């Protein structure tokens, strides 16, 4: 994926509030419930507050998706913890299939997918569709391929583990950018 393409996609992306506004009342309520249930810890806030490199992030999602409702509000929390470093935009997967097709997982159009880019939109990496903790929880429940129903209760420990898993991906992207020879030379650090 080329930087100019990712820049166009990022610029086409919506803010979290605008993205949620595209959903139905129940969908917005389900997303808000997960958001309200999972604030950042002091340690997570401190980590995010230490980020110094800008990370442009594009999340392909579906407002209708059970995995998205259980994870995307957590991604938003992370972005809010580093407002000067993380510029997060949301795209509907079905409206941006050209991008989705480039980040398919196991030959499927999975969501959510977070695409991490440097300040100049060079790709850092992408991650999705579920954190390891989400897969562990699903395996413990049934080992099936069923997607959770939006609005289904999520245990608090599972939400915290999922938040930690996503935070690791953001920290990985930040450290990769912070240690980048190209960017260190550019910024003189």
Oligomer: single chain
Q: In CATH terms, what is the fold-level topology?
A: Glutaredoxin
Unreliable stretches covering 5 or more consecutive residues: none
**Portion in beta strands:** 5-15%
Largest sheet: 4 strands, mixed
Looking at this structure, what is the CATH superfamily? Glutaredoxin
The rounded distance between the terminal residues' Cα atoms is: 27 Å
Report helical residue fraction. 40-55%
The assigned CATH architecture is 3-Layer(aba) Sandwich
- Radius of gyration (CA) equals 16 Å
Q: Main attributes?
A:
single chain, 189 residues, Glutaredoxin, four-stranded mixed sheet, 52% helix
Structure summary:
The protein is an alpha+beta fold and 189 residues long. It has helices at residues 3-12, 16-21, 25-37, 42-49, 66-81, 97-100, 132-141, 156-179, 181-187, and strands spanning 55-61, 86-92, 113-117, 123-128. It has a single domain (3-187), classed as Glutaredoxin, CATH 3.40.30.
Tell me about this structure.
The protein has nine helices and four strands, in the order ααααβαβαββααα. It is α+β, with helices and mostly antiparallel strands and 189 residues long. It has a single domain (3-187), classed as Glutaredoxin (3-Layer(aba) Sandwich), CATH 3.40.30.10. It has a four-stranded mixed beta sheet with strand order 2-1-3-4, with helices on both faces. Strand 3 (113-117) and strand 4 form a beta hairpin. The radius of gyration is 16 Å and the shape is globular. The two termini are 27 Å apart.
């Amino acid at each position: 994926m080329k930087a100019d393409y990712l820049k166009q996609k990022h610029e086409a992306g919506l803010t979290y509030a605008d993205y949620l506004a595209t959903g139905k009342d129940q969908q917005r309520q389900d997303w808000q419930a997960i958001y309200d249930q999972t604030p950042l810890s002091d340690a997570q806030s401190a980590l995010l507050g230490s980020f110094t490199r800008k990370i442009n992030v594009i999340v392909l999602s579906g407002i209708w998706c059970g995995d998205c409702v259980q994870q995307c509000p957590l991604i938003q929390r992370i972005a809010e913890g580093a407002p000067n470093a993380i510029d997060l935009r949301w795209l509907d997967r079905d409206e941006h299939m050209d991008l989705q097709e480039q980040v398919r997982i196991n030959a499927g159009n999975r969501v959510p997918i977070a695409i991490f880019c440097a300040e100049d939109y060079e790709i850092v990496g992408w991650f999705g569709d579920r954190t390891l903790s989400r897969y562990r929880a699903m395996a413990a429940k049934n080992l099936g391929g069923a997607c959770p129903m939006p609005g289904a209760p999520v245990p608090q420990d599972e939400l915290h583990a999922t938040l930690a898993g996503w935070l690791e991906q953001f920290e990985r992207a930040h450290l990769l950018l912070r240690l980048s020879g190209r960017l260190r030379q550019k910024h003189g650090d």
